[in-house]
Amino acid sequence: MYLTPPERRAQSRTASDVVPGPLQDLRAADGASSKRGGRHGDRARLRRSIVQLASMLKCVSGCNPLSYRGYGCFCGYRGDGMPVDPIDSCCLEHDWCYSQSPCSKLSLYLLPYEWHCLTPGMAHCAYPASLSPHAHCGQQLCQCDLEFASCVSRYPCPRRRISCQHRKLSMIHSLFNGKKR
């Protein structure tokens, strides 16, 4: 059974949009926000990037982040061929966004960045005052992840994985994502 984004939002009792912007906007909206990310109350989440992506996906889309692992040709490790559907196209765009980042390949998966889950369906990248190379890199990774989460939230949560029809990639996905052929 697929849940549409409005149905997912209704289950969360909150209908909202993804709102990127500067930290000052977040502070202004602070009084209206009922749910904050992180274990330090008012502090933004600060975890490794891959874990942050999973948390952001859950916050914005309401879907289980693991439902995207190994989905289509571009969700998961590497990518090749043509996207199989709009969700897979979101994954391709996310890969492209990461490829445009000034971050090293290792940083893409390990560099922490700051973000807030304001309410279910609404996340915000928190831009630090420091403009160090690491801060700029983390800022861009956060924005890539936020755009990806926003993109997939427009579609129902995947209830099954759609396989990539591209033969070479299908074998790679099977190896890395534990699927049997």
Automatic annotation (TrEMBL):
Residues 1-42 are annotated as: Disordered. Binds 1 Ca(2+) ion per subunit. The keyword Disulfide bond applies. Its EC number is 3.1.1.4. GO terms for biological process: arachidonate secretion; lipid catabolic process; phospholipid metabolic process. GO terms for molecular function: calcium ion binding; phospholipase A2 activity. Disulfide bonds join 75-91, 90-151, 97-144, 125-142. SMART domains: PA2c. It catalyses: a 1,2-diacyl-sn-glycero-3-phosphocholine + H2O = a 1-acyl-sn-glycero-3-phosphocholine + a fatty acid + H(+). It comes from the Eukaryota. It is found in: Secreted. Its cofactor is Ca(2+). The keyword Secreted applies. Residues 49-165 form the Phospholipase A2-like central domain. PROSITE patterns: PA2_HIS. Keywords: Calcium, Disulfide bond, Hydrolase, Lipid metabolism, Metal-binding, Secreted, Zymogen. GO terms for cellular component: extracellular region. Its main location: secreted. Ca(2+) binds at residues 74, 76, 95. It is an enzyme of class 3 (hydrolase). Residues 1-10 have a biased composition (Basic and acidic residues). The active site is at residues 94, 145. Belongs to the phospholipase A2 family. Group III subfamily. This is Phospholipase A2. It comes from Ixodes scapularis (Black-legged tick).
